[in-house]
Amino acid sequence: MSITKLNASAATLTKNRTEEAISSLSGMCATCVDGCIGMCEIGKSAYRGSEIIYPQPFGIITAAAEKNYPLDLSLFTILGTAVGAEGIAADSDKAIFPAVDLESRIGRDKGIKVKQPLIVPGLGSTAIATSNWAELAIGCAISGIPLTIGENICGMDKTTEIVDGRVVYSKDLEWRVRLYQEWQQDGYGAIIVQANVEDTRLGIQEYAISELDVEVVEIKWGQGAKDIGGEVKIGDLKKAQFLKSRGYIVLPDPTDKDVIDAFENGSFKEFERHSRVGMVTEESFLNRVEELREIGAKYVFLKTGAYRPADLARAVKYSSKAEIDLLTVDAAGGGTGMSPWRMMNEWGVPPVEIFSLLYKYLDMLAQNGEFVPDVAIAGGFTLEDQIFKGLALGAPYFKLIGMARAPLAAAMVGKNIGKWIADEGEVPVYFKQFGSTVEEIFVTAPELKRRFGTRFDEIPTGAIGIYTYLERLAQGQRQLMCGSRKFALEYITRDDIAALTKESAEISGISYVMDADKEEVDKILES
Which residues, including other chains, have CB under 8 Å from residue 20's CB and lie 6 or more apart? Predict the structure, then answer.
């Protein structure tokens, strides 16, 4: 049975003519009829070509793979216990779930404080990230979790001033950084500026450090959605030409007369802007880390994607040699922008597999007495049980869970509730069961009003949506940890979960549920 959906997907707005008679090999209708209007991927590609490579409609969606991977986190179960407590007195009046401590510190000097074990990885110049940035920045800042400004921000910003090939001013980057800094609470969280090939050439991290008081920067190797550079679509000819002049790859060529005529005649409506792929070497990586520290970066991170095992080993080893403050490893299957749809489904190492390899490689470093960086993992995480399992799968090395699509979803929902209230004066029927005002609908609104007083009205409802969602995750995480009698993150171990199939046990190294606690069981029963 095929585990991939071929030739038709809601992501590319395509469908087969027949509903049931589909070839599992090709995804084509079992009978392809002359006369069909061609709504499948093959048919639509016959008249729209490369447009159909990407999820649609671009700019208002995020996307994730439809592929049914052989393994996922649902094949692991969380093991609770009725005995004792770690991190708190074994006292029923003290060992209650609100007492679970979700705070952690990351970095070589453990100087970055985080309210709960989450980080939002790079959200860059895509339309969906840009249009929700205020919500993301304020929501993450007041929640005390780190937020990463992704690639191509300065290059896409027309107001960016470049002197001798280097950025000296960017209105967009400054706005994104300052917004988070303005709302950051008690030093929790961090705003991180990421850089790809083009960003590094433009010197945006140097600018961010020297002019915007940024302390945390991230080198980007890749992500889980694609193994090529970042992409966006551009619906404006002048901007497409401008971006080509900045050195980006823009397709089709916006300076070609025939292309210009085709665009103006409506043959196509959007250009593609692509970034270059990096060329990683150990020497260049170590040198770049040293450069960033010399110019004032207090913390240097590395973000890598779902590349082959050898590249994962390189990321781990190089991060150890450079004593990186945080290594983020993304797994195959998801994205927040314009990642090619087939690529998103068919390339890269899936979550359980790459996290298991990552744990193995980190443990090898530890056994050899080498530096082990703090690690974040990303790849389809949405709710508290997945967070717990992800941390346990790589304990004690995995410190944070990276999430992007889920916080974006919370931001968009919160933003739309605010729009309905402000613009239409009425919310959809579904929400009326909770009320019709911000204070009634958002359960955390009273708390936020107490915290921020008159500033509460400055918080976008999308940011309230993120904060409320993250508060739900925090309570759910505390309940799961309390049930496992782990009252701080440092006490989570790999034996807090069990594998439900022998295959998932073999791949992950987590005990099969029928073998869990075997030695302790024998001691108990034989005593």
Answer: none
**Cβ neighbours for 281, distance < 8 A, ≥ 6 positions apart:** none
With CA atoms as reference, report the closest residue to 239 among 267, 202, 270: 270
What phi and psi values does residue 398 have, to the nearest 5 degrees? -80, 120
How does DSSP assign 156-206, residue by residue? Answer: H-TT-EEETTEEEE-HHHHHHHHHHHHH--TTBS-EEEEE-HHHHHHTHHH
Compute the CA torsion angle 220, 224, 230, 231 (nearest 10 deg): -170
List the one residue out of 342, 267, 282, 326 whose CA is nearest residue 11.
342
Residue 320's DSSP bridge partners are none
pTM: 0.95
pLDDT in tens, the chain (527 residues): 457 788 999 899 999 999 889 998 899 999 999 999 999 999 999 999 999 999 988 878 888 888 899 999 999 999 999 999 999 999 999 999 999 999 999 999 999 999 999 999 988 888 888 899 999 999 999 999 999 999 999 999 999 999 999 999 999 999 999 999 999 999 999 999 999 999 999 999 999 999 999 999 999 998 888 888 888 899 999 999 999 999 999 999 999 999 999 999 999 999 999 989 999 999 999 999 999 999 999 999 999 999 999 999 999 999 999 999 999 999 998 776 678 899 999 999 999 999 999 999 999 999 999 999 999 999 999 999 999 999 999 999 999 999 999 999 999 999 999 999 998 778 888 998 999 999 999 999 999 999 999 999 999 999 999 999 999 999 999 999 999 999 999 999 999 999 999 999 999 999 999 999 999 999 999 98
How far apart, in whole angstroms, are the C-alpha atoms of residue 1 and residue 422?
50
The residue written with tokens 């009698």 in the block is 485
Per the CB < 8 A criterion, the answer to whether 433 and 410 are in contact is: no
